[in-house]
What does this fold into?
Amino acid sequence: MNLVDALQDLVGHVPDLVQPLIVAAAGAIPFVEGEGAATIGIIGGITPAIAIIAAIIGNFACVAVLVLLGSGARRAVVTRRRARVQAAAVAAGHEPAPGVGDDPAPEVSPRKAKFQRAFERYGVPGVSLLGPLLLPTQFTATMLAAAGVGRGRILIWQGVAIVGWTVVVALLIGGVVTTLS
It folds into this structure.
């Protein structure tokens, strides 16, 4: 039994009030996300509107936590690096030049290079809206935060993407389930 089957089985065996919580928890799992979680809920017998809302909430809550943690970690690393470089310059009797201690260009993995090319080509909206076709929203959002994009901008566009993809996929699945019933 795989994870999706286990979640669908769980949704069918818990009280009605707990079912949306299972769907929301499924939405927080990378590769399941809002689309998969809504599908699990709909196939598990939850009203499509409730399944969609629970899946969106679970997926977005996970993305929001990751963006906040990722941007905080990036800020701490950049601040520490800047302070270290400036302290070394002052200790050597030099005035640090503007921009000294900013992020040096680290060696980039092929996956990060692919993300960077997409980011440069499509920007935050494009990466957020098209990202779910290649990577989970959790990964995309974390990479955007690591790239230094503002938290608010990431959360807005990830929210739009999560709502859009979840609603579209859930409506398709709901239509298929209704047709087959």
Remarks:
- The helical segments are 3-13, 19-27, 33-43, 48-91, 110-130, 137-146, 151-180.
- The chain has seven helices and no strands.
